[in-house]
Amino acid sequence: MNEEEHILTGGNIAARVVRIGATVRKPVTAATPSVRSLLDCLHDRGYPASPRHFGTDEQGRQSLEFVPGVMGNAGPPLGLGDLEQVGRLIRQLHEVTAYFPIPTDARWDVPIRPDHDDLICHNDLAPWNLVRSGDRWVFIDWDNAGPGSRLWDLSYAAVTFPPIEPQGDIAEIAPRVGALVRGYKLSPSQGYALPTLMRRRAQAMGDLLVHGTENGLQPWAEMYEADHARYWFGAARFVEEHRQALEEVCMNR
Questions:
Q1: At 95, which helix (H) or strand (E)?
Q2: Taking every pair of C-alpha atoms in the chain, what is the biggest distance, in angstroms?
Q3: Is 237 exposed, middle or buried, given 0-12, 13-18 or 19+ CB atoms closer than 10 A?
Q4: 1 within some domain
Q5: What CA–CA distance (Å, rounded) separates 86 from 57?
Q6: Measured between alpha carbons, how far is 227 from 97 in angstroms, rounded to an integer?
Q7: Global pTM exceeds 0.90
Q8: Could you check whether the bond before residue 219 is cis, i.e. omega within 30 degrees of 0?
Q9: pLDDT digits (tens, 9 = 90+) for 184-227
Q10: In this structure, is residue 180 part of a structural domain?
């Protein structure tokens, strides 16, 4: 007997995504084989914050583990201890992916060129891609995983998780960025460099949405129409205006 499909909403990238029992089904892309290899590697090496990939179903869709729980952007913002936990999970991720044996025929879907390509990154680490399931926290939506750098991946998380609010109070935001960084255990030199990449990453997201709407590229055009670019450009300005304060907390001063 076929199980009922339940449409899942909230994502910005994938087309129709459904839940069937304990699995999520979503369209296959050119990057799917490489993403599956990555998720298999993470599972085999005991990384706790990624879903299982079960291959494809009879309709040719990806089949992944459905993780029940609360999304990271549901309810009040994460506390300082929660942000440290996120930082630790990102550090653990990079410790594994730094040694991921990249397939020789790997194809990735990375919409923004990173600063470096030292290892494989998630590339969309944000509260809307975090599921909290009791003691297990899982990053979902790995479709844009691909080459990047530790700081490039972390810089996006340092904008989205605290989060950086364009009209926010730096006295409230800086300690939250600092908590994420403490969890990751950045060196002082890495901490000094992070705010620069936070600004670049936010600016690049805004530029991507502008390019998408100018060229009719989805889902970027829809996100631009939903006024997301305003947020990213505002976040970039906020980081630039408060660079010194952010450098200090990122260096654990």
A1: helix 80-97
A2: 61
A3: middle
A4: no
A5: 32
A6: 34
A7: yes
A8: yes
A9: 999 999 999 999 999 999 999 999 999 999 999 989 999 999 99
A10: yes
